[in-house]
Amino acid sequence: MVSSSATKRAARLAQKGKGKRVRFQGGTLFPMLVLAILVIGVGTIVYARASVPAADASPPTIEDHWHMAYGFSLCDQPDTFVQLNGNLEDQTNPHFNDYNRTGVHSHDDGVIHWHPFTAASVGKRADLGLFLENYGVELTDERLTFPSDQNEGKEYVEGETKCPGDEDGELSVTVWSSPEDTSSGDRYVSGFDDIKLQKNSLVLTISFQPRDTPATMPPWAAQLEELGAVDGGQTAPGDTTNTGSTTPAGSSTPSGSTVPSASSTPAVGEPSDATTPATTVAPATTAASATTAAG
After folding, report:
1. At 123, phi and psi to the nearest 5?
2. Which parts of 67-193 fold into alpha helices (H)?
3. Dist. CA 109–CA 89, nearest whole Å
4. Could you give the residue ranges of the DSSP H alpha helices within the chain?
5. Omega before 60 cis (within 30°)?
6. pLDDT digits (tens, 9 = 90+) for 135-156
């Protein structure tokens, strides 16, 4: 039988507990943390949606159809400029799918034909690396590697490949704003794949030559307008409304992988006012000292 004193004690304890709130262990810290996490999460989602960048509308766009002259100046072939072989528009070409995706190709003519089919080759994505990749050519800061079906699969490595006279070769890319540009061009000694091609009628020489060897334009640069005109109305594969020729018309430059080099740069007139990005360009008169051969 429960004693009266025990009953009274239980009643007193019950009376003390009336009206008291139940608290989380640790006070209000935990619910405040949960609330803060929720607020931060919602804020992050809202900010992310509001700050999504607009689609790249910088040139070249899908509406553009550009042409740029290019060539490889290689010290083991001193009397020629090397071109890449193969018309990527040919569906039997192993790189046809790359052309079909980007619209970037050449016609065995030493000209980059750049007319984007998709967003893969517009705006800031238009760079030298994309064109070279379409032909399987690898170009890093120290190494130029041709696939087996181009230039006999040769490789040129700074610090390893020797030029005639046992001289070390150095990789560089020189860019002129147009065939009429009479300057020395903008000479890059690194970041070659990222060189932006955001202007029509550029001229590019990709060199592996002894340091301080002056770069010259490929000799067919003077014919750029004529060579580019052969497919000026070309459309994406499958569109039969306007097909263009794939054979250079009226060109006096022979097709093939190599063309005899000119004795001087075929540049006339005044330089164009267009420039390439200054943040990655080494001045033509000083770039040779910007890097040293590896090894």
Report:
1. 50, -130
2. 96-102, 128-134
3. 13
4. 4-17, 29-50, 96-102, 128-134, 224-228
5. yes
6. 999 999 999 999 999 999 999 9
